[in-house]
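so im writing up the methods section and need the SDR family oxidoreductase record in one place, dumping it here so i stop losing it
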Amino acid sequence: MELDGKVAVVTGGTRGVGAGIARAFVRAGAEVVVCARRPPDVPVPKTEFVPLDVRDTEAVGHFFAGLPRLDVLVNNAGGAPYRPLTQAGAERHVRVVELNLLAPLTVSLAAYDHLRRAHGSIVMIGSVSGSRPSPGTAAYGAAKAGLDHLARSMAVEWAPEVRVNTLVVGMVRTELSHLHYGGPDAVASVAQTVPLGRLAEPSDVGAAAVFLASDAAAYVTGASLLVHGGGERPAFLDAATAHKEK
Ligand SMILES: NC(=O)c1ccc[n+]([C@@H]2O[C@H](COP(=O)([O-])OP(=O)(O)OC[C@H]3O[C@@H](n4cnc5c(N)ncnc54)[C@H](OP(=O)(O)O)[C@@H]3O)[C@@H](O)[C@H]2O)c1
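--- predicted struct ---
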């Protein structure tokens, strides 16, 4: 199997995208530790849960110091509620940047010695929000843009021992999709905007993460892999077509 004998940590691996990644890693033969602030409601079989707030630098340091070894780190913990810039104080936006950009940096630094020894790799979970305007989640989009850039610099600084890549993820169907995209009808209409006709499943992201973490990607570092079902059809095309049809 692709990840036989490897030890992986998936931050935020207790639900949603992270649980999909954890499940895919277990299937690929890895020993998987998931961490989050709260234990999972539905644990992924054969994973170990460790409570950890990735924004707590000291706790992050202790966690990695206590691990016997590590081959793969998946910086997945992240996200943000819909919140236009002027509808919250600056400190709320700062917390979003802490979770989505500064925490992955802190966690990667704490994991570095293990990963260097193991000739391991890091997978950052980015978002298409980092490569287009992200109204309503501006701080999140900016943090994800920064994360992708951080990964590219890290890949150069930490080569040849540690590979670092980003999955640039589009819309995913999770337990919390309704908070981002609305109920089933809304999700169905949103899905029609995606060329592949559906939102991603957490398992789609998991499969791409397994690839980046495996020896099949031995020459892939500093890369950003789009997992977005073809992305967004440019809005101007529909506007122009509608105009021509009049
Ligand atoms: N869902 C999407 O459509 C989508 C699209 C593009 C990219 N992504 C990215 O995919 C990743 C996962 O998103 P998701 O939708 O699966 O989110 P989610 O369902 O909200 O899950 C987030 C996970 O991160 C953990 N977490 C949150 N804050 C944490 C903290 N401070 N310390 C440790 N763990 C923390 C959560 O557990 P606790 O709350 O118990 O800590 C949970 O396990 C994020 O990086 C997100 O930006 C998601």
